[in-house]
Amino acid sequence: MTDDKAMTDPSITLLQPPQARDIAEQVAELYAEVYAEPPYNEGPDDVAAFTDRYRQQTQQPGFALAAAYHGHRLVGMAYVATLEAGRWWRGALDTPSPDIHAADKAGLYELAIRRPHRGRGLARQLVHTALAHRPEAWAVLLVNPDTTAHTIYQHWGWQPAGLVQPQPGWPVNQAMTHNLPIR
């Protein structure tokens, strides 16, 4: 096992849909590992549903995947796609402000990092890479408000924009927004 202090920084690359689809199994493996942890506690059925969603999301306009590799192993990822003007998250319990709702938005759908690579600034690098050079004026995401991720997004300047329950039986998430470009 590599000593954490001796661990080299992962390399980050931005992948377009064809390349992102080519690594779907690696993305699913990463997702399975990260989301098996509390508070998510997701199992094989959740991973299968994620894999189906991921394949569909790679078909959306504006899709891009920021992938972090340590050697040949995918250790982190963040991906985005365009939420077109007038669209908002399925299961919204609140309506966003009219200026956000009326605009195209960069939807940050997932951010996942393997445990040994956390706490090193990789999450921020992945989000910045995924959102760099986007044509949209706003970035939006959903996050469970009971997680560390929520606190991190707040620290990075993301603002609350309503509540969303994406699927029946899922926890209520906080929708958050950030103007682009992110600095």
Helix and strand composition category: alpha+beta
Strand numbers in spatial order across the main sheet? 1-2-3-4-5-7-6
Main sheet characteristics: 7 strands, mixed
Q: Percentage of helical residues?
A: 25-40%
Considering the protein shown, what is the CATH homologous superfamily? Answer: Gcn5-related N-acetyltransferase (GNAT)
Could you name the ranges where pLDDT drops below 50 across 5 or more consecutive residues?
Answer: 1-5
Say what oligomer this is: single chain
Secondary structure layout plus pairing:
Layout lengths: L10 E5 L1 H6 L1 H12 L8 H14 L6 E7 L2 E11 L14 H4 L3 E9 L8 H10 L6 E6 L4 H8 L3 E6 L8 E7 L4
Parallel strand pairs: 4-5
Antiparallel strand pairs: 1-2, 2-3, 3-4, 5-7, 6-7
Helix pairs in contact: 2-3
Summarize the structure.
The chain contains six helices and seven strands. With 183 residues, it is an alpha+beta fold.
Commentary on this structure:
- The chain is an alpha+beta fold and 183 residues long.
- It has one domain: 3-Layer(aba) Sandwich (Aminopeptidase).
- Helix content is 30%, strand content 28%.
- The protein has a 7-stranded mixed β-sheet with strand order 1-2-3-4-5-7-6.
- α5 links the parallel β4 and β5.
- α2 packs across α3.
Descriptors:
single chain; 183 residues; alpha+beta; Aminopeptidase; 6 helices; 28% strand; globular; disordered N terminus
